[in-house]
Amino acid sequence: MSDWVKRWVMPTWFWASPGEREEDGYLWVRRHGEGIAAGLSGLLILLAWWTSGFTQVTGIVLYLAAYAIGGFAKAREGLTALFTEKKLDVNLLMLVAAMGAASIGYWMEGALLIFIFALSGALERYSEQRSQRDLSALLSLQPQSALLWDGTEEREVPIRVLRPGDRVLVKPGAQLPVDGKVVEGASEVNQSTITGESVPVGKQPGDGVFAGTMNGTGSLVVEMTRPADESTFSKILRLVEEAKGQEPPSQRKIERFEGIYAKTVILVTVLLLLGPPLLWGWSWNDTVYRAMVFLVVASPCAVVASIMPAVLSAMSNGARQGLLFKGGAYVESLSEVRVVAFDKTGTLTRGELAVTDVLPLDGREENEVLMAAASLEILSEHPIARAVVAEAKNRALSPERPDAFQSVTGHGVRGEWRGSRWRIGKPAWILSDVPPDLKRLEADGKTVVALAEGEVPIGLIALRDQIRPEAKRAVQALQRQGMEVVMLTGDRRQTAKAIAQEAGIRKVEAELLPEEKVAAIQRWEREVGPVAMVGDGVNDAPALATARVGIAMGAAGSDVALDTARVVLMNDDLGKVSEAIALGRRTWRIVKQNLVFALAVIGLLIMANFTNGISLPLGVIGHEGSTLLVIVNGLRLLR
């Protein structure tokens, strides 16, 4: 068949295989073809019902069109499963039931079965497609080249040609291309993509560095210690891809149930067609009628409708509350969660440093210390500098540009201001003695900088990432639900414990690399139960993918976290985590109610058909009535 015919004459959903390349104008049709087909099928059923009063032939033709359009996608799935996977599934069984109804003259009943099943499949496919986002944001962060350094000159080479022992030059502001250790130079490295630390970390010869992190103002020569495909950043990529490819346990159970159910119904139908005429002398017409009634009442419309309408209603409910579920399976997964793990930086906290204490020394005033510090830092883009300047402006101070300014890598800054020489930076660079206040502030998990005029220290400024105002209430709500709440962070242990205590979290695991977060989640799942991970950064992506449910911060979260997570908090409200779990539990209670009811009705109808016999219209009324009731029950979740 020519490409021209494929593109413009035949509808794309008719012929395109799942693996075929998606491009040009028919991509939209590929994505929405099942929904379009279900809608057309429903319209044709209405037209057939209306016209059948005038001419029966027209009605039958329209019903046949409804069968073909509404049932094609499911027929294709069923036949593909039958011939390629040697598996008989519910898709094929449903179509056989509908054709059986039509074969004995009940066209509308069969067409309605097709329509309901096609619509359910279209809604399910749509919800699945919403979760199929690629890892382009994460992949774009992966280093592609490096400056190979031989001691005298640099040469740009692809990452893949580097080997452990090679040395690379990392210029100021550049991305570190490899995992290794610093052999020359000093700088501060922003490694929040790996560890989640909110403050850049000073690096000197002998210190380890990670690929994918960002260098500060100094130059570094780094000796590669691990091949590129074994770097921490590469592990993040692999962990995310592997975890996203894992099928949820409930999906495997449903697939197994579908196969057993479909085979059982087909087997019983064959026995009904062959047994009664041979054993009891039934007429062929009576036998076919009873077998078709069985096919209709045993068709799984009510069973299928037990799940998706309820799940989709829960997803709509969540969307109105600022909860985005990327697929229906994750509503169920939330109902099973027993442990909620929080990242610290950007999740429990705002992800921005703020000044918490200004402690004058040498008889100075607070505002005097803050004014001098902000004036020195006003030219710097360091997170600490921005926080100090912001605090000064909050106190209605007006920092002035220094007369001279110099950044001292790994220590702080020095400059001249109002005729004096000043220094601000790490306490060890400024102070000869350690005052008690410094130990107290650091014990509280705060970052402390010291300020000196000449050689005389005049003040300490403490900063800390501020906890979100709703964090404590969110943790308490989860604990009331019986959840075990833990913190998993790459930040320093002291800082993590201080934030955890403020939030009311008793279990803390700190200084974790991404793969260590994954190991912690796997351990918690083995020891306690399914884990929900709440995070926002690139470093959280493997943990978000590994957890039973990954929950990302919508506004503050990185693109990678948003792509990887199964649930997104659109307004960054941590209180929605407990609401999401409650919604998941309520949804699955209703799903279980629906399944029990649907299976009970099917069982009663089958029993009645085997004992006293029931008419096909009565069987359809019982079957469709049960379908309608379970849908209405699921729609309660919209409230």
Automatic annotation (TrEMBL):
Name this polypeptide is given: Cd2+/Zn2+-exporting ATPase
Organism of this sequence: Desmospora profundinema
Record keywords: ATP-binding, Cell membrane, Ion transport, Magnesium, Membrane, Metal-binding, Nucleotide-binding, Phosphoprotein, Translocase, Transmembrane, Transmembrane helix, Transport
Domain P-type ATPase A: 141-241
Similarity section: Belongs to the cation transport ATPase (P-type) (TC 3.A.3) family. Type IB subfamily.
Bilayer topology: Multi-pass membrane protein
Transmembrane segments: 40-70, 90-123, 260-282, 288-312, 595-614
CDD domains reported in the protein's UniProt record: P-type_ATPase_HM_ZosA_PfeT-like
Database matches in Gene3D superfamilies: Calcium-transporting ATPase, cytoplasmic domain N (3.40.1110.10), Calcium-transporting ATPase, cytoplasmic transduction domain A (2.70.150.10), HAD superfamily/HAD-like (3.40.50.1000)
Major subcellular site: membrane
Keyword Plastid: no
Compartments where located: Cell membrane; Membrane
Keyword Thylakoid: no
